[in-house]
């Protein structure tokens, strides 16, 4: 396996990881920002008020994007399996 092929494979793996993680994390971050602004405006310092909406949005995101996440991971795995002959030989 040439170093260029390894770097290309590693770059693609990092891209897949970045896309999958950001699809899950970004909605929770946005809801956390909205809740933080609401808490700052109303001076409410309740810990569960910031945790529960983020948890619910993250779970809803996983429910709606689960099919896409699994499909993306499966496509990457199939690509890895297809590249096995070029890695070995």
UniProtKB/TrEMBL annotation:
Its main location: membrane. It is a multi-pass membrane protein. The gene is fliQ. One of its GO terms (cellular component) is plasma membrane. InterPro entries: Bac_export_3 (IPR002191), FliQ (IPR006305). NCBIfam families: fliQ. Belongs to the FliQ/MopD/SpaQ family. The chain crosses the membrane at residues 12-39, 51-70. Pfam families: Bac_export_3. GO terms for biological process: bacterial-type flagellum assembly; protein secretion. It is found in: Cell membrane; Bacterial flagellum basal body. The keyword Membrane applies. It comes from the Bacteria. Keywords: Bacterial flagellum, Cell membrane, Cell projection, Cilium, Flagellum, Membrane, Transmembrane, Transmembrane helix. The keyword Ribonucleoprotein does not apply. The lineage of its organism: Bacteria, Pseudomonadati, Pseudomonadota, Gammaproteobacteria, Alteromonadales. This is Flagellar biosynthetic protein FliQ. Role in flagellar biosynthesis.
